[in-house]
Here is the input.
Amino acid sequence: MEMLTNKELFEASSRLMPGGVNSPVRSFGSVGGTPYVVEKATGPFVFDVEGKRYIDYVQSYGAIILGHADPRVTSAITEAAAKGTSYGAPTPGELELAQLISSRVAGVEMLRLTSSGTEATMTAIRIARGFTKRDKIVKFDGCYHGHSDGLLVHAGSGVANMVVPDSGGVPASMASSTVVLPYNEVPELDETIAAVIVEPVAANMGLVPPQDGFLAGLRAECDRVGALLIFDEVITGFRIAFGGAEENFGVVADLYTFGKVIGGGLPIGAVGGRSDVMEVLAPVGPVYQAGTLSGNPVATAAGSTVLRLLEPASYLMLEGRAKYLAAGMEKVMLEVDLEVVAQRHGPLFSLFFGLAPVGNFEQARASVSKGVYPYFFHAMLSRGVALAPGPYEAIFVGLSHDWEQLDRTIDITQAAAKEARDKYFSASKKF
Ligand SMILES: *Cc1c(COP(=O)(O)O)cnc(C)c1O
Here is the structure.
């Protein structure tokens, strides 16, 4: 086959798939230009179809933590696949992954595996409604919980780049049972609320850590009115700590959702929590949920391999590297007068343009609306560093980003920041 360029492939894809992509943020819609089309990836690098190499900080939006194509994960996948890829019957592999998850997160007494994070959060909401026999849920502005109807209201990630805060195609009746409130403010709840769902560290509006008392305050309010607290740990789970958010903040939720890291780059999700709550699920209880590929043996083999390779020490290593990169990038950007704040929790961070710390989505939007990100993104990409093509995504440092690549990234950031600053100001924009 003759070699096609990024542009040729993306144009062909755009004729066949809306926007040329299977998930909106990949389209470069909020940064402009043509996406690189990935041929392969290894460790910290992705390679496009034209043979260009990038230091990759997308890492499948957090699904990859050991690095791309880690040989230990790849062989677990090929060994599992050789034994058959799906059976429609229970397997020892799904039990192993369930044990790994529940042994690390104390609040997860029982769990169910799904095929994506979206299914996990959608199921968590259904469980909460079935358990409490109430309809309303509370979510926070700028938190992303996947693309199910009731959760696509004022969501972060790719949704945040749209002109309207909500998705089309969601019935008003669905959206109206979702109450949207500002992150980092403990609301006063009432007895109509089935559940409060929250990213314990918000990572889809840039990186916004919870302020002191926010998560504990939510726990107390939920207890006061009999609502369930759901930690959506699809990004944070097994990334910010060995035991997840519970370990870092000392707050135990009723339900947890996971995805990304627990599949080692294969499609997976999980919803878990208190066993009395989880047992409302069919076939034990009246709340239906199912999946042909749920607990898929190849995905669980990949996920278990990744979790077994992550130790408490891995998180110290991850945090050390992210801290070094975040501080290094912030420093060289400030040196060339590109005002920026690096916000970080553990190994997750993001850059907010401007000098004001960001505590909620309104403040995140104010930073993004300065319009610096597209210039910075392209200045980095052209120098061989792939950040996410959207201003609300986190920067994912994994165990494959060694000191050499981190230093290279900081050097590149310095040159990219100068270019971004010059282009931004010559487009006569100002902070
Ligand atoms: C990615 C994400 C989801 C959705 O997971 P998918 O696997 O993309 O469906 C849900 N919640 C959070 C916090 C996420 O980051």
The pocket of pyridoxal-5'-phosphate is lined by residues 116-118, 121, 144-146, 199, 204, 232, 234-235, 259, 269 (CB under 6 Å). The chain has a mean pLDDT of 96. The chain is about 35% helix and 15% strand. Residues 6-65+311-426 form a domain with the Aspartate Aminotransferase, domain 1 fold (CATH 3.90.1150.10).
